[in-house]
Design brief:
single chain; alpha/beta; Rossmann fold; 2 domains; 7-stranded parallel beta sheet; 5-stranded parallel beta sheet; glycosyltransferase; Glyco_trans_4-like_N
Length: 346
């Protein structure tokens, strides 16, 4: 009897312990085919793996990623000592480090989780430098594993060959969530919300402006707004602070409409969480959401929402919005993500 081949070892390079990137990596490990074993190379917290990695089926290696020089030096030693078949770099800086070091006979997979040149909070010069770096390193990338079709398009634009670029569809971070049916407004209150860190990427100022616009258009309606995540206080906005998955689920269930206001993304897991919870969604038009139908955008969908609230057609509007998002997001589950990961890891 021929024994099964040894599992291929995938080293995940993750230079942060909060935010959407670790959440996505946890999903990759959870949906991984059994032919792979995982090692998370990431900064420690209090001398051990960060809380975000708790419960995952992976080994851990501490990585000093505090500065680029230290990150490169420490990672060089880690890659020399480890026996990795695949190095999967998550986000821009690990993507640079992995491709500069590029161990021999190792498959280098890179998921930007939003390219640095897509940021709008840095100067044109900075964005241009980031783009040049990506273009320079494109040839050292075995596979560009984009987290969405918009990110794949951007990868092709910096010189990644089409046959080396694929999409690993993101999944909701909330598990065992059942989408609720469309429901009417409760007590005449319209409850709006956004999920994420209070940071330039998520653009809380844009959220505040859209809430103000809806309050102006619906002057006779009690419009309440919640920012689900850590952040600063803002007039007229309830900010929950950091909350765990169970609280996120409950906060989403309290909302009537989810507004996604991020200025740049790879592919927003928060939208997938809101969709999984059964919420109607209006999203900002950004490259991460290519070809998003106008009715689902904040710019063009807000008027239909206002009309639906005024004319007491909110349930019908919600159902139509949900059908639009189901069609746009398409089918995605553990099997589709696992199959895409197997293609990326080889």
């Amino acid at each position: 009897m021929i024994p099964d081949p040894a599992p291929r070892v995938v080293a995940h390079l993750v230079d942060r312990t909060t935010g959407g990137v670790p959440v996505a990596v946890r999903s990759y490990i959870r949906t991984s085919p059994p032919a792979y074993r995982h090692v998370i190379v990431s900064p420690p917290v209090a001398g051990g793996p960060a809380p975000v990695w708790a419960g995952g089926d992976a080994a851990h290696v501490a990585w000093d990623a505090s500065t680029p020089v230290r990150a490169l030096r420490d990672l060089r030693g880690i890659l020399r000592r480890g026996r990795f078949d695949v190095v999967h770099a998550h986000s821009s800086f690990p993507g640079v480090y992995a491709r500069l070091l590029r161990p021999a006979r190792t498959r280098v997979v890179y998921t930007p989780h939003c390219f640095a040149f897509a940021r709008t909070d840095v100067s044109f010069v900075h964005r241009s430098v980031y783009r040049v770096i990506e273009r320079t390193l494109a040839g050292r990338t075995t596979v560009l594993a984009a987290c969405g079709p918009g990110e794949r398009d951007e990868a092709l634009g910096v010189g990644i060959a089409a046959h080396r670029a694929l999409v690993i569809p993101n999944l909701p971070s909330l598990v065992d969530v059942h989408a609720r049916p469309p429901r009417a407004l409760r007590d005449g209150v319209l409850r709006l919300g956004m999920l994420g860190r209070w940071s330039p990427q998520k653009d809380p100022g844009f959220f505040v402006d859209r809430v103000a616009s809806l309050r102006h258009a619906l002057a006779d309606v009690d419009v309440r707004a919640t920012w689900i995540g850590d952040g600063s206080a803002a007039p007229g906005i309830r900010v929950t602070g950091w909350v765990g998955a169970g609280c996120v689920r409950r906060e989403l269930d309290e909302l009537d409409v989810y507004l996604h206001t991020a200025a740049w993304e790879g592919f927003p897991i928060a939208i997938l969480d809101a969709d999984a919870a059964g919420l109607p969604i209006l999203a900002r038009r950004i490259p991460a959401l290519p070809d998003l139908p106008a009715a689902l955008t904040l710019d063009e969908g807000e008027a239909a929402l206002v009309a639906a609230v005024r004319e007491r057609r909110f349930v019908a509007w919600s159902a139509e919005n949900r059908r639009g998002w189901r069609a746009y997001l398409g089918h995605r589950d553990a099997h589709t993500q696992g199959d895409a990961l197997a293609r990326a890891w080889g």
